[in-house]
Amino acid sequence: MNPANLKDRLEARQGDITGLSVDAIVNAANTSLLGGGGVDGAIHRAAGPELLAECRTLGGCPTGEARLTRGYRLPAGRVIHTVGPVYRGRPEDSRLLASCYACSLTLARDHGLRTLAFPAISCGVYGYPIDEACKIAVDVCAGFLEAHEVPEKVIFMLFSAAHLDVYTRCLTARVG
Ligand code: ADP
């Protein structure tokens, strides 16, 4: 895969991830998969109660792993639920956050999901510093896209202008 192509396949935008018409959006869930605040709450509100009903059948998800559901009333066809680490400054935090991105990308590839959008996993109530988290997100996604044709496109959907700024700088440094 040539680098110019990689640049077109990774994009940072600002806005609400629940409004995106992509093959799958990623949810920053908790281990119960039964809903919560932040982006998790927004996704469940927009998807409707059928999403919670399907999540109940999954029996939770360990930190660093990911699970796939349908998108129900969302414009996105599927939701990939992943559980980021609560930030405590331990070496395993970065390993677990990288694993969230890798597991989500692998699920998307295995299910032929061509367009995928991520929020800033763990960067809300879980307290991960945005600069460190962003570098992990961009490194893992760029590496995966270099190695695989699916997903074709990854969007980082940031809620704040400050987070968009961090991602834009990091993407420019990694892919130009
Ligand atoms: P975590 O528990 O993994 O930290 P949060 O939901 O608290 O998850 O926050 C993760 C990130 O998602 C934060 O940067 C937050 O600002 C952002 N966020 C919250 N709501 C939305 C939304 N509707 N679309 C995109 N990002 C969102």
From TrEMBL:
Any one Pfam family match given in the protein's UniProt record, by short name: Macro
InterPro entries: Macro_dom (IPR002589), Macro_dom-like (IPR043472)
Protein name: RNase III inhibitor
Organism placement in taxonomy: Bacteria, Pseudomonadati, Thermodesulfobacteriota, Desulfobacteria, Desulfobacterales
Single GO MF descriptor: O-acetyl-ADP-ribose deacetylase activity
Macro domain segment(s): 1-175
